[in-house]
Inverse folding.
């Protein structure tokens, strides 16, 4: 469905006058992101306890949207502020993913061996520590790499409900219909994610996407509710330093252990 006329005299898109569908907009934004590939990201929880603050550097992977999953989304180095379920205070965990291999730098709370703060994670392992770490990592990746998650969902089930200018940028309001997304998606990973949200009672989510005139993402805000509790889940992700070099490398082997 085409976007409604923008409010306050805003252009209907950053660089032309024709209205955009959500799929059109996502296609342009994804193309711009893949063209630059690298960026710095900051994820800020606004009103929730189910997402985490995160910050770091990202290099978008080359796997296309129809086949991407959580491990192939990007190479990245992000620090995630997590909330353990064991009564300990929030912990800052640093995750590095490079060539689909993921490492975590743990805090003393997790009692790493002396001189070995890094753990090489294996998604095939089923111990509690590994499952917890991948749980934290996966939320961080979903927040900070929207080309492999939120944007793909919006392309499949989103509808632009309004737009407004912000200086040289444009803010788009988009509503995600989870049922429409699940029915339209062909990527098994993303389809399962949409189904999970539907099975939990979700129906829709609201987004605000801010892009410049070249369709480069400046920020993405997500708002939803946990159906069982009515608890809001709101977070904003901010992007900068697009195209700048990023230094991504695996941890020193001498400081790394396995589980």
């Amino acid at each position: 469905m085409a976007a409604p006329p923008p409010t306050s005299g805003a252009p209907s898109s950053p660089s032309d006058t024709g209205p955009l569908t959500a799929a059109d907009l996502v296609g342009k934004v994804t193309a711009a992101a893949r063209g630059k590939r690298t960026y710095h990201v900051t994820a800020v929880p606004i009103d929730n306890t189910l997402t985490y603050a995160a910050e770091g550097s990202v290099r978008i992977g080359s796997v296309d949207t129809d086949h991407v999953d959580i491990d192939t989304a990007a190479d990245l180095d992000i620090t995630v502020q997590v909330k353990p379920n064991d009564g300990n205070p929030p912990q800052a965990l640093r995750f590095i993913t490079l060539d689909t291999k993921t490492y975590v730098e743990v805090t003393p709370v997790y009692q790493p061996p002396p001189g070995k703060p890094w753990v090489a994670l294996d998604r095939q392992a089923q111990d509690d520590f590994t499952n917890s770490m991948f749980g934290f990592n996966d939320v961080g990746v979903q927040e900070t790499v929207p080309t492999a998650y939120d944007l793909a969902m919006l392309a499949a089930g989103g509808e632009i409900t309004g737009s407004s200018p912000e200086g040289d940028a444009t803010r788009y309001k988009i509503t995600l219909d989870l049922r429409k997304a699940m029915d339209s998606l062909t990527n098994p990973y993303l389809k399962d994610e949409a189904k999970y949200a539907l099975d939990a009672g979700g129906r829709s989510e609201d987004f605000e996407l801010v892009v410049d005139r070249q369709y480069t993402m400046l920020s993405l805000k997500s708002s939803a509710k946990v159906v069982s509790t009515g608890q809001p889940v709101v977070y904003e992700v901010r992007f900068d330093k697009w195209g700048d070099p990023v230094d991504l490398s695996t941890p020193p082997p001498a400081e790394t252990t396995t589980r």
